[in-house]
Amino acid sequence: MSSESWPPPLKEWVARCLGQMTDANRAEAQAELRESIANAFAEKTLWTTDWAGVQLKRCGLSSSQADLMPKAPPVLNTLKRKMNDTPPMSKKAKKAAAQKRNDANLDFGDQAALNRRAERFQREHDIERQKSMRGQASLQANNQNAHLFNRISRSDSPSAFGTNPDDPEADPNVLDWDKYTIVGTNQELFKDYLRLTSEPKPETIRPYSVLQQTLVELKKRWKDKVSYNWICNQFKSLRQDLTVQRIKNEFTVQVYEIHARMALESSDMVEYNQCQATLKNLYDLGIPGKHEEFTAYRILMLLHGRNKSELNLYVGTLTPRQKRDPAVQHALQVQRAISMGNYHALFEMYFNAPNMGAYIMDYFIDRERTRALMTMTKAYRTITVYFIQNELGFESVSDTLKFLGTHGSAFFVNPNALDRDKTVECKSAAPQLAQIYEEKYRKVGIKGAI
């Protein structure tokens, strides 16, 4: 509340008040003066108060002492008359009075500045104390979590003069290494996956060098046609050992990529989606891998889930390099064919999908076949089974007939003809196809979706 921003009547009132103070009443009068101005400032009446008519209290002064401020207008007029009746002051007296007013102004200003500084320091002290309390609470919570999940038994008693000499050296494969990072000591190549229910122990975790050998052996076993259930269990155990040791490097990416492909081949969408989610985080860290391949898979999965808004946002984030990749271009062409209802182009791309894209398209290809057949039955009166087989990408006539039977469209005008020559009667098949589509494909459920 700088005095420079005061209204002129207030400045004149303060000047008159200070000029009438004496050594006997100065302290009490200044206190009352500050209180009056502070109240007006708090009530936002600095500019609306009639300061010429404001009168301070006597502050316990004797009745013989004059009021500090003018009272009501009649009293003010009387005071003016009394002042006019007094003889004029000499130059020396006027100079002394002016000096007294200046000293009073300095005293009042210095005291107000000190009060403002004290209030500011008190506010800063309160803010710093609150920050300190929040920081201590956060530090305590972080220490508890780190002790619960990441503590190494041999680092519980660190040296009094620094880091425990028994702590393992920092591993360059761990991005966020600290003394709580676990380093495994287990030397077994294969270990069953068990969900953690307590703090992990180094003797149950395999170190990085052993995990590399484990991956080599698992790939060999997969080529030898080992059971997927066993291979999946081993991969989950491998992933768990990487996670508890905070290992995030190209080897980690390779593990998740290989498991994701195996899951696709074995129709295990739960594990595939978990691997895909982790891979996205690893790629975002800048760790190299088959980024473009799994970008194409992600586009196809979003097409399967019919999540148009998320798909559009994701496609908008693709880099020029990603868009030039053949697998990503194929996935974008599939998106365009589906959006435009171009089933002829869609099923050609289904046969020519790069990498393992066809495994993901398998999940939504029957839905798109049903949509395509609905369009065909509206455009034609009759359609041969052989024509349906070629247009909708079936591998054999028997697969085509099976699809027509399960989708309520096996209405043939020549039921006794050869399978490939049988002709579907479209008028009868169209309403059944529409009903099956609503019941079977309107809602999409994806296991393990994240």
From TrEMBL:
Q: Which residues form the PCI domain?
A: 268-447
Kindly list the GO CC terms recorded for this protein.
Answer: nucleus
User: Could you identify this protein by its name?
Assistant: SAC3/GANP/Nin1/mts3/eIF-3 p25 family-domain-containing protein
* Segments crossing the lipid bilayer: none
Query: What are the start and end residues of every segment in region (Disordered)?
Result: 154-173
Which is an annotated Pfam family here? SAC3_GANP
